[in-house]
Amino acid sequence: MKLKTIMLSTGAIAAAASAYAAGHGMADSMTLVSWGGAYQASQTNAYSDPYKAEHDGLEVVWDESSNEAVAKLRAMNEAGNITWDLVDVVASDAIRLCDEGLALEIDHDEVLAAAPDGTPASEDFGDLLVSDCFIPQIVYSTTVGYRTDLVGDTAPTDICAIFDLEAYPGKRSLEKRPINNMEWALLCDGVAKADVYDVLSTEAGQDQALAKLDTIKDSVVWWSAGADTPQLLADGEVVMGSTYNGRLFSLIEEQDQPVAMLWDAQVFDLDGWIVPAGLPEDRLARVMDFLYFATDTQRLADQAKYISYGPARASSAPLVGQHATLGIDMAPHMPTDPANATNTFLYNYEWWADYRDDLDAKFQAWLAK
Amino acid sequence: MSDASQAGPVLAADGTPLKKSLQRALRAQKLRALALIAPLLIFILVTFVGPIADMLFRSVENAIVSETLPRTVVALEDWDHEAGEAPSEDVYRMMTYDMVTAAELKTHTRLGSRLNYETTGISSMFRKTGRRVDDFGEEYTDQFVALNPAWEEPATWVALMAASTDPFAISPAAEQALPETASIYADFAKTIADTKGDSVTEEEPWHPVYLALYTDLIANPDAASAFSGESAALISAAAAAVPTFEVTTTKDLFVKADKGWTDPEVWGTIKAFTPEYTSGYFLASVDLKKSPDGIESLPEDRQIYMLLFKRTLFMSLMIMGSCVILGYPIAFLLANLPMRTSNLLMILVLLPFWTSLLVRTSAWKILLQQQGVINDILVWIGLVDDADRLVMINNQFGTIVAMTHILLPFMILPLYSVMKTIPPYYVRAAKSLGATNWVAFWRVYFPQSVPGIGAGCILVFILAIGYYITPELVGGTTGTFISNRIAYHISSSLNWGLAAALGTILLAVVLILYWVYDKIVGIDNVSLG
Questions:
Q1: How would you label B438-466 residue by residue, b for 16+ Cβ within 10 Å and e otherwise?
Q2: Strands A240-244 and A172-175
Q3: Considering CB atoms only, which of B117, B394, B493 is closest to A221?
């Protein structure tokens, strides 16, 4: 009799527990995809660890595949087996994924938390919502770092130092793709900032940019991984080079190298989340819950404690504090800091989505010559 | 013997012809053999051959255009690109129907990025237009509703369109009298059911449905005769009113969304890529272009693939050659030294083989770069001026050095195992018959080691031709391979068709070279030991 009661009651508890789980309908594990390294560590610290602390028994798996996320997501979609729940990609990839129908379109105001003062998410993120599928996390910039000990007495102050072989002889490293390089070349060839993409839309404008790049072609080391330029700068292999501002921050502040940053004409870009299309309901519910948590004002500001990228919400900026281990103020190291952002360049997503394939062919043909 | 040649077939003991009986016995044996290898065979077919074939098939597959724009494709058949004018209003109207369905299914942007590979700008045209196309025809809706509010009611439409026998099918009468409306209404019904689970009984049709109704009524003012009751009255009232409607052409609506839609080039591209299979990707991978006017060569500043194919072949041959030159003496030493020493040397050969590829490549960076170990030493001993350090990396030289090092074990191991089997007394015999060292080696030893060279060369060449990590890291601009572009198209540009075409060509080149090798050297003459 007693045994039966116990069995009955455990059965009831089990049933209640499963009913509870079903009621909530959330999967108890999720797979997040990011870039690995310091950036992923900052996300773990700022987003997933606090979330896990609130949700017992939740398993969070990280996959360091953001680099090939677009191709892998397409393959998963074709195979009908989506194993990722949330994917960190740059904005241009998010647009591509959205175009391909591989990312879920979301209503930002419905899915994301409002700012503490009640501003809806879509206004808080503002212009940074470049795609219906994209939830921005950070603003990063591609900017130039230079060796303070190799540039002589006058340190470079503007972007055109890249093209000035007389004042700054030596090698420089640039990314092995047309994006950013073409824009900088035109800016330094006398084209006004507002006209850059109009000029670049014409065949003559593209030739003009490549002609400008031709003047330094023999002195350029072309990089394809974000870690290349910091390494080349540390080795003294190049005098200056373009890379992401967070990489330069860690080179300068954490590794103490004689390197300084040239914020001039830094190109803003965005990195953020997309939710893969076609997730089963329980996993979607879990990921939406996490997304609501991880993209609120405080969480985005927290991430800046670990890495020098600017939070994507306007309301997060005043909350940015000090670096978690170095103890220095992070605000002056943000690309969005007013002192750094005196001359910035906005990456035109729509334009590059159109011209990327064609210009890349032209750029690679030019490189190979 | 004589029996057999005289009469009938030779019989087995049980009376059946011997040939048949033998075949039966052999068939059983073959089946058993097949059953033994079946698991492996199926495994390879499913996990290796199948996916590769599927990937290569993408190089010609092009159903996306005709699937996404079925009506436009048909309407474009009569349009002549040569005239240099934008197509007629009919084409734009068909495009409206196709586009509104595609936008609802979110396939229009996919088609946009597909066509953007061919003509720059199409991607954003599709994206922009897709955002607005559901408003195309709004003024028709307004005017129909102003005429009679019943047009707003989903029930009106169901009564008009649905067959009485099957509510999920379009009635033959509607199809006959209002063909365009019926067709787009059917798409509307299917799309809202598939994407949102909605039913036509609750949803007001898309604006383009009203556009279709307007077009049908202009073309067939007598449409009401096909219907009865309330529907007939509704239709005949509408048919009487439509000539007075104020209308904008759909062409204008498209142009308002993006002015690129007037460009005949855009329509030419759509038309050129309507067939389900296309040669476009293959043409693109040999620097040609499939255009509305036929095949033309790409502008010179965009030609890259032929150059890369040639470079890949040239550099793979260079790497193969350096591997032979460096590997042969080492393998010779390994095969002829006493066991103890040769084992030690063997470990030295294998050690890098067990080290990560990335580590080895990065090591070469540290050695070869301008502020690297080799340059430092050269400057230190005074061979090279400090201001004039050697450029040894981020070019072809760096790639060849690093890849030769990485692939060297693949040359040494087959060479070693072949040389191990060459009996030393052949050379001794040659020498005792008066041959010099060189003659003994060249005439006696070397020919016996050729199978090893062949195996090593094939291994190294085929591995080299498909390499991409090392060239990407140390190749700079002049040392990259075709595989780097394939990787780019797979992972970045998502142009898998082009990647598949490039891969197919690369595979064909390898097979041709293999065939040539077989003709010249003989594939039987290859030995791994």
A1: eebbeebbeeebebbbbbbbbbbbebbbb
A2: parallel
A3: B394
Of 3.40.190.10, 3.20.20.140, 3.40.1170.10, 3.40.50.1820, the CATH number of A25-139+271-332 is: 3.40.190.10
Q: State the nearest Cα–Cα gap between A358 and chain B, in angstroms.
A: 6
Which is nearest to B247 in space by CA: B331, B144, B324, B347?
A: B144
Question: Sorting pLDDT into bands at 50, 70 and 90, what band is B352?
Answer: confident
Q: What are B185-220's pLDDT values in tens digits? A: 999 999 998 888 888 888 899 999 999 999 999 999
Task: Parse chain A into domains and list their residue ranges.
Answer: 25-139+271-332, 143-267+349-368
CATH class of domain segment(s) B305-525: mainly alpha
The amino acid occupying position B483 is: S
Distance (Å, whole) CA A234 – CA A219:
18
One-letter identity of residue B198: D
Distance CA A294, CA A61 (A): 16
Of all residues in chain B, the one with the smallest CA distance to A175 is B476
Inspect the interface and report whether the beta carbons of A368 and B307 lie closer than 8 Å.
yes
Q: Widest CA span of chain B, in angstroms? A: 116
Instruction: Locate the chain A residue with the closest alpha carbon to B308.
Output: A368
Provide the pairing of β-strand A344-346 with A86-90.
Answer: unpaired
Contact criterion met (CB < 8 Å) for B371 and A365: no
Topology of the domain comprising A143-267+349-368: D-Maltodextrin-Binding Protein; domain 2 (3.40.190)
* A143-267+349-368 has the same fold as A25-139+271-332: yes
Q: CB A222 to CB B394 under 8 A?
A: yes
Choose among A321, A299, A333: nearest CA to A42: A299
* Residue contact B302–A356, C-beta within 8 A: no
Q: Across the interface, do A353 and B123 touch by the CB < 8 Å criterion? A: yes
Q: What residue segments make up the domains of chain B, in order of their start?
A: 2-57, 63-303, 305-525
CA dist A51 and A290 (Å) reads 7
**CA distances in angstroms from B413 to B68, B433, B449, B450, B465, listed in the order given:** 54, 32, 12, 14, 20
* Contact residues, B window 101-140, toward A, CB-based 8 Å cutoff: 106-107, 109-110, 112-113, 116-117, 120-124, 127
Q: From the list B124, B302, B371, which residue is nearest A361 (CB)?
A: B302
Q: What is the pLDDT of residues A158-190, one digit of tens each?
A: 999 999 999 999 999 999 999 999 999 999 999
CA distance B184 to chain A (A): 23
**DSSP secondary structure code for residue B422 in this structure:** S
